[in-house]
Protein 1
Amino acid sequence: MYILGMESSCDETSAAVVEMGEGVRAIRSNIVASQIETHRLYGGVVPEIASRAHIEAISRITYQALEEAGITVADLGAVAVTAFPGLIGALLVGVNFAKSLAFSRKLPLVAVNHIHGHVAAAYLSHPDLEPPFLALVVSGGHTSFYRVTDYTEFCEIGGTRDDAAGEAFDKIGRVIGLPYPGGAALDKLAYEGDPKAIALPSPALGKDTLDLSFSGIKTATLNYLNGMTQKGQEVNRADVAASYTYRIVQAITQKAELALKETGMKTLVLAGGVAANSHLRASLEGLCRRLGVKLCMPDRSLCGDNGAMIAAAGYFRYLRREFADTSLNASANDDYNV
C-alpha cells in the first residue's frame, strides 16, 4: 500500500510517498523543503517564521511528492502525519493539512510520534530490521534510549536530564563562529583538532544510570572560551571542536554500552538528526563490533526530519487500526496520547 507521510515538527516541511507491505519497504518519493537559509540569519529556528514557511510549502511539496511517486491521491491507502512532539505552531500546519486531505478523500489518518518516526527510518534503510531492539535517538531535542519491543511499543529507559546532544553541538558551533547549523560544521572541523587538547567534563552521569547531562559540558566550554578571550589568547577552534565532540561521543557510547548490557539486546538502532554525525557513527560501529551487536543506522539522508520516516512509522499504526479522527490536535509534548 502507498502511504503519504507528512512532517512539519520544526524547520523542515516534508511530504513523502512510501510503499509498505509484505516484503516491501520502499520510498517512492521524499520531498523536503528546507528552511536553513531562512533561519541562518538568526542563528537558530524562529518558531513563527518556521510556521509561516510550512504554510507556504506544504501544498506544493505534497503535489510534488505524489507526482514523483507516479500516483494520485486516489492510490493512497492512508495519510500519516507528525502530531507530536515539536514546535506547536509548526506541527499544527501539518496536522491540519493532513486532516483536511484525509477526511476529504475518506482516507485513514494516522497520528505519529516524531521520535518513533526517526526510529522507523531505520526500517527503510534496513528492510530486514524488526523488533525487539535498543533504539538510541539523538537529535536537537532528544538524546534518549528506548527498549523497542514491537513496532509501536517504546519504553524509554534513559536519556538526557536537560539539554540534547544536538542542541549542545549547535550551541558551541555558533559560539565559535561556525555557520548555521553549527552541529554539521562542528563535525567536520573536529577532524582538524586534537580531541585531548582541552579537558572537559563528561556528560555521562554515574556508573549505574543511563542518563546524561549536556549543560555542564556546554558551561565548561563557554568558560574556557571566555577565559581565553580575557587572557587575550587566540582560540584554536579545531581543538575546541575536537575536544567537545570527543567528550560527547564518548559519553553517549559509554551509555549505549551499558544499555546494551542491561537489556541484553543484540541490535542497536541509531536514529535522529545527530545520527548523521560521523564521529558518533564511527564510535558506535566500533562498540557494536566489539560487543557482537548488529548496528542499524538510517542513510544520512533519512537522519534529518522527513516525511518518509513518518509514513513508515504510520504504517505499523495503520496495521493496528490506530486511526485518528477529526478531533486530532498537535502537541509540543512527548507524552501526548492520540
Protein 2
Amino acid sequence: MEGFTVVFLSVLALGLVLQLWLAARQASHIVAHAQRVPAAFADRISPAEHQKAASYSLARLGVERWDLALSALVVVAWTLGGGLNGLDARVAVMGLGPLWGGVVLVLATVLIGGLIDLPLSVWRTFGIEARFGFNRNTPTGFIKDRLLAVLLTLLLGGPLLAVILWLMTSAGDLWWFWAWLVWMGFSLFVTWAYPVWIAPLFNRFEPLNDRPLRIRLEQLLERCGFRSNGMFVMDGSRRSAHGNAYFTGFGANKRIVFFDTLLDGLEADEVEAVLAHELGHFKRHHIAKGMLLSSALSLAGLWLLGWLAQEPWFYSGLGVDNASPALALVLFMLVLPVFTLFVSPLLARLSRRHEFEADDFAAAQTDPTHLINGLVKMYRDNASTLTPDPLYSAFYHSHPPAPVRVAHLSSKIPT
C-alpha cells in the first residue's frame, strides 16, 4: 500500500470517527436537557415546544450519521474502489477528446454523486421535515427543483469546466492563477445574476407591500447608509415552514429578502431588529471579508491542485491508473473535504464572532429586546435546539448557541 493511500485512509477514518463521536455527544446532550426549558426561555417556549425541538434535532442527527457513513463509502468507492477508473474508461470510448471528454467526466461524477445523495434528500424532506410539520413541498415540486438544478449545473458548470480544463493544458505552469481569475469572475457574475435571473427560477419574489413596515425599514436603511434594489418577500412557505431573511447580490442587483414565513411570525419591531442584524454584517464589512477569505482560499486551493496534478503519487495513491487534468480535478474535489474537515472549527469560530458583531450593531440601532424576542420566536418556529453540546456547536455551528447569544444581547439592554 502506497504512503499517500495510508495517509488518505487514516485521515478519512479519523474524520469519520470524530464526526460520529461529535454527533453522539450532541444527541446525549440534547436528551439530557430535553425535559427542562433553559431558564432564559422558560417564559416564551413551552416544554412541549422544547421537546419538539429536541426530537427534531435527534431525527436530523440520525440522518447525519447515515450521511457521514455514506459520504466516506462514496469517496472510497470512487477512488480506491475503482469507480473513477471505470467511469474514465467509459468516457474514453465516446471519442470526445481530452477537453470535452474531461468535461463529461467531471459533470458525470457530480451528477452521479447527486443521485447517490437523493434517497437521503427524500428522507429529509418527506420523512423528517414532513413528520415535524415543516415540509410543504410536493413530490412534483421536489423533482422539478432537482431537474432545474441539474440544468443549471450543465448550463453554467459545463462552460466553466471547459475553460478551466483548457487552461490546465494550455496556460503553462501558472494555469492555476489564470483559472483563479476565471473562477473569481464567474463567482462575481453568479452573485450579481442570482437575485434577478437564478433565484426567481425556484421561488416567487414580490416587493414588500406592507406600507407601514416598509417605511419603518426604509428609515432604518437610511440611518445605516445602506442602498439596495428593494425589499422583497419570498414564497418560502411553498416548500417549508422555516423562516429566514438574507441579503443577496451586489451593486445594482443588491436585494433584501424576507421569507413570508418570517414576516408571518414576527412583529414589525422584531423584523426591524432582524434586518438591523443583517445590516450589521454589511456595516462591519463581513461580506467583503468573507469574499476576500474565499478568494484567498480559492487561490491557495488552485495552487495546490496545480502541484498535485503533476505528482504521479496523487493518482496512484488514490487508486487511479491514468493522469489527466479532469481526473486531477475530480480527485481534488473528492479528497479535499477529507483534509479540510479539521479547519472547519476555525471558520465556524470566525462566523460566530461576526454574528456577535452584527448583534452588537443591531442592539445599537434598535432595542435589543426586540431582537431577542425575534430570535426566540425563530428558535421556536424552526424547532432549533436550545441546548446544543458545546463541543459540537464549536465544531460546526456558524451561529452562537441560543443561550449564549441571548445572554450576550441581554447584556446590551440599558439598565
Protein 3
Amino acid sequence: MATSTFDTLLQKIETRAARAGIIGLGYVGLPLAIAVARSGFAVTGFDIDPGKMVALEARRSYIDAVSNEALATEIEAGRFQATTDFVGLAECDIIIICVPTPLTKHRDPDLSFVETTSRSIAEHLRPGQLVALESTTYPGTTDDIVKVILEGTGLKSGADFFVGFSPEREDPGNQHYHTATIPKVVAGDGAEALALMKAFYGAAVSTVVPVSSNATAEAVKLTENIFRSVNIALVNELKTVYAAMGIDVWEVIEAAKTKPFGYMPFYPGPGLGGHCIPIDPFYLTWKSREYELPTRFIELAGEINSAMPRYVVGKLAEALDMRAGKALSRSRVLVLGLAYKKNVADIRESPSLRLIEIIEERGGRADYHDPFVAEIPPTREYQALKGRKSVTLTPEAVAGYDAVLVATDHDSVDYAALAKTAALIVDTRNVFNRLGLSADHIIKA
C-alpha cells in the first residue's frame, strides 16, 4: 500500500493536481500560501481569526511580504481561498502547519498550537496525505508529537500518510529574498516522505536542501537563530564594556569588518525582537535538559540580550540628568520606533515595548512614534499598553519631550529635522552617526 499511496500523491504533486492546505495565515503562512498558489497548486488557507477572513475576502493583505495585487491575482485565478472551517482539510493532499510556537513565562516551549492543530488534522486525516510542520521547535517535535497524534487515528506514517518538517525562514522587510527565493531545508519521516517534501517544495521555491531526518531539519533552524542570538549578545556586551572605556563600539565594528576573512559584523541594539531570535534558542535549552547537558552559551546570550532594555533606559536616565538636569521620573520621553526592526510593522517581542514599560516603571512618561504601527495591538505581555497611538512626528510635538529614544531606525524618518528640534536624543541604532549627523545633544546607547 505504501508504494501505491506514495506514487499517487507524487503524481498529484508533479502534475499540480494536489490541493495544499496552509494552517495559520500569519507572517509565515500567508506568504507561503501565495508562493504555492503561484506555482500552480490550488491552495486553501485555514485560520481561526475571522478578521483575517474579512481582509482576505476584500483582497486586502495584512502582511507586508504579500501585496494586495498578488493576493487578488491568486484569489481571482481560483488558486487561493481561505476559511475558518477545518472540515476542508479532508480535501487537501498536502497540509502545512504554520502556527505560533511561543514560550511560557518560565521560558518553556508552548506547543499548544501545534498540538491543537495536529488534533484538528487528525479528525480529517485520510490515506494519501502529506503533513508538514514549519513552526520552529525543538528536535523531535515532528516525530514525537505531530506524528504520534496523527497515528492515533490508526493510520500509519510512511504507509497511509506521510510526515515532514521544513523550517520557515521568513525575514520581514527583506527586499532581496522572499519565500520563493530563500533556500528551503526539507526532511521527512522516511525516504518516501522526503521525496514528497522535495517534490512539493521544489515546485514552489527555487532551491531545496534535503537533510536526513526531521530532527536534523528542526536543529537547522535552531542553529541559525542561536548563531545570531549569541553574536548579537557578544556585541551588546562589547558595547557596554567599550562604552565604559570611552570607545565607540560602532566605530570598532566598522573597522573590524574591513577584514576580508574571519569576521562577520553584528550590531548592538536595545534588545532582541521578532518571533525567532528571542525565543527559538530556549527551545534547545529546554530540550537539552532531557540529556542532562548545559547550554551555557545560549542561556548567557539570552541574559545579556534581555538586559539591554534596562541598560538603555539607564543610559537615558544618565543623559537626562547630565545634559538636562532632570530626573527620568519627571521626564517625557518619545520612543522612536515600535517595530522590532526597521521598515516593517512587526512588533512581536519588540524591545520597544519593554523600553516603554521600564521608563514608566521608573516614573517617566513614554509615548511612541512609528510610521508603520498606528496603534499598539493586544499583546500577551504588555496588556497595559494596548490602544496607545503613535504620536505624529511634528517639530512642535518633538519639542514637547525631554528626550527622544531611538529604538528602531525606520528609513522614512527625517532624522535631520529631528536633530534640530529634539532637546536630547539617545540613539541605540547609530543612525545619526551613519547619516553624518552629530551634535552634543545626540548620545549613543
Protein 4
Amino acid sequence: MKENLKALFTGCLTVPNLLSLIRILLIPVFGVLFYNGEALWAVVVLVLSGLTDLFDGKIARRFNQISELGKILDPVADKLTQITIAVVIFLVLDKSQDPTMQWFKWVFLFFLFKELVMILGGAVMLAIGLRPGAAEIYGKVATFVFYGVMVVVLAFGPEIGALCEWFTLPTPVMIVLVIISALLTFVALLSYLPSTFRQFKERKHKSEEK
C-alpha cells in the first residue's frame, strides 16, 4: 500500500494536476451559482472548467508532465463535473410546467447513470488489482461534445438559458443536441468494454496457469 501511494504521488506537482484540481473545485461553485439563479456566472464557470480540461491534457503531453495521479484526477474531475451538470439541469427542468420539458429532463439522468457505472466499475477493477482503461477517442469526443452542448443549453436553452433574452434555442434543436450528446456518451461507454473484458480474460488465464 505504501509503495502504491508513493508511486501515485511521485511527480504529482505539475501544472496539469493543478488544472484538474481547479476543475474539481469549480464544480460546487457552478452548482451553487446555477441552482441559485446566477445562470450567467454558472456558464462562465463551466466554460473555465472546460478550458482547464482542454489544456491540462495538452500541457501534460507537450511537456511530458503525465503522472499517475493525473491519470486519476483528470477523469474524476470530468465525471464529477458531468454528474453535477446533469443533476442541476434535471432539478431545474423538474420545476417546469411544460410537458415536453418534464419528459425531456429524464435524458439528463442517462449522463448520471453512465458516470456512476464508470465510477463503480473503476472502483471494482482497482479493488481486484486491475487498471480501468484510459479514455479512448470515443470518450474524448463524447466529453468534448458534452461540454459544448451543455454550454449552449445553459446559455440559450428554453427555461434554462442565461442569455435567453437575446436568443432562445428552439426546443426541438435543444432536444436533438442533447440526444446526440447522449448517443455519443453511450458509444463512449461501450468503447471501454473490450479493454475491460481483455483484462478480466488475462487475469483468468493467469489464474488458471497457477
